[in-house]
């Protein structure tokens, strides 16, 4: 019988080689156990990557939709909160102005108008809200502050009504200024710096978009601004010596603010519809992403039990190899003489 002997150096080399091989296999299996995915995906799929590429493409698209949906949810949520503040500002102001107008008491009218004037400043500041670097009521021009300051708007109106001698004349001039079309020198040209194009539509999923309707140029917002601006004119001294016209303008201001409350509620309802559509899209995208990730895992995932068993077996082999190597190292010719 023929025997093939292996020299000491060759044996040590083979032992080291086997040691490296076992460690590499253990590293691969450890990574697969932690990630749950085959280290060699091409081999796991038999070289056919078509289905996996399609799933990965869908997942990337859903990730971009998720980013857009998250941003839209933040914007609409901030808009809704701001509109809630604005609606709260209108609160009892309209009714208070109507009540003050019936008293024909200049002190009461002035005090009520002063309260409305203070809220006018808060109203303008709220419409200039900036969230994450974007002005939420500027329409598509979200990098631009939508409104001039309350004092600048008041200055425009003071110049506009300087020659008016009646409350109805003031009302007509202010109404025309807020309602003027672009290019006519009204509110949209001198006080509003945002875009007349709405923010959006936002692509929330494949083939589905959602509009974000509100801006400081919305008729509902302009009506609210107009009501408070009329009171601010009273507070600034318009018709100071004419109680009848002052009371009449307070009444017109109150009526405008009361009417604006209903308009604001309608605007908030429209915005709420957009919020609901965004939330629905977010839920659908999340469900679809989960489904695709499961499908992807079924294609390239590893069986955790089998992988753990293989890892244990390799560990046993490595320990055996270390034991054998130690014994080989301890061999001495003296032991056999």
In short:
By secondary structure, this protein is mainly alpha-helical. 70% of the residues lie in helices and 5% in strands.
Q: Alpha-carbon distance between the termini?
A: 27 Å
**Class based on secondary structure composition and strand pairing:** mainly alpha
Which CATH class is shown? Mainly Alpha
- Specify the CATH homologous superfamily: f41 fragment of flagellin, N-terminal domain
Please summarize the sheet with the most strands.
2 strands, antiparallel
Kindly report the average pLDDT value: 85
> Which regions contain 5 or more consecutive residues with pLDDT less than 50?
none
Number of helices: 11
Protein name: Flagellin C-terminal domain-containing protein
InterPro entries: Flagellin_C
Organism: Pseudothioclava arenosa
Pfam families: Flagellin_C (PF00700)
Folded structure, characterized:
The strands form 2 sheets. A two-stranded antiparallel sheet has the order 1-2. A two-stranded antiparallel sheet has the order 3-4. Helix 1 runs antiparallel to helix 11 (304-330), helix 7 packs parallel to helix 10 (243-300) and helix 9 (219-235) runs antiparallel to helix 10 (243-300). The two termini are 27 Å apart. The protein is rod-shaped. Strand 3 (199-205) and strand 4 form a beta hairpin. The chain has one domain (54-292): f41 fragment of flagellin, N-terminal domain (Up-down Bundle), CATH 1.20.1330. It has helices spanning 8-35, 41-44, 50-90, 93-103, 106-127, 150-160, 167-179, 187-190, 219-235, 243-300, 304-330; strands spanning 130-131, 134-135, 199-205, 208-212. It is mainly alpha-helical and 337 residues long.
């Amino acid at each position: 019988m023929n025997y093939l002997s292996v020299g000491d150096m060759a044996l040590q080399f083979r032992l080291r080689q086997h040691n490296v091989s076992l460690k590499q296999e253990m590293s691969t299996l450890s990574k697969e156990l932690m990630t749950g995915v085959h280290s060699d995906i091409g081999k796991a799929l038999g070289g056919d990557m078509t289905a996996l590429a399609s799933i990965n493409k869908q997942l990337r698209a859903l990730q971009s939709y998720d980013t857009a949906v998250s941003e839209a949810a933040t914007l609409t949520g901030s808009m809704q909160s701001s509109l809630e503040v604005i609606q709260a500002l209108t609160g009892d102001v309209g009714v208070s102005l109507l009540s003050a107008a019936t008293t024909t008491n200049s002190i009461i009218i002035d005090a009520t108008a002063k309260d409305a004037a203070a809220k006018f400043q808060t109203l303008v500041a709220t419409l200039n809200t900036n969230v994450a670097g974007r002005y939420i009521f500027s329409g598509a021009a979200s990098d631009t502050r939508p409104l001039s300051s309350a004092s600048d708007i008041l200055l425009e109106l003071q110049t506009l009504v300087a020659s008016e001698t009646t409350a109805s004349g003031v009302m007509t001039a202010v109404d025309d200024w807020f309602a003027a079309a672009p290019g006519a020198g009204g509110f949209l040209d001198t006080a509003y710096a945002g875009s007349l194009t709405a923010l959006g539509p936002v692509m929330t999923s494949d083939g589905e978009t959602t509009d974000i309707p509100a801006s400081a140029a919305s008729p509902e917002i302009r009506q609210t601004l107009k009501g408070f601006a009329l009171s601010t004119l009273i507070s600034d001294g318009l018709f100071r010596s004419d109680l009848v016209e002052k009371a009449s303008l307070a009444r017109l201001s109150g009526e405008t603010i009361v009417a604006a409350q209903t308009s604001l509620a309608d605007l908030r309802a429209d915005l709420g519809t957009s919020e609901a559509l965004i939330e629905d899209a977010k839920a659908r995208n999340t469900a679809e992403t989960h489904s695709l990730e499961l499908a992807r895992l079924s294609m390239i995932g590893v069986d955790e039990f089998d992988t753990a068993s293989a890892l244990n077996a390799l560990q046993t082999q490595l320990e055996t190899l270390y034991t054998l190597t130690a014994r080989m190292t301890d061999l001495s010719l003296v032991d056999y003489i």
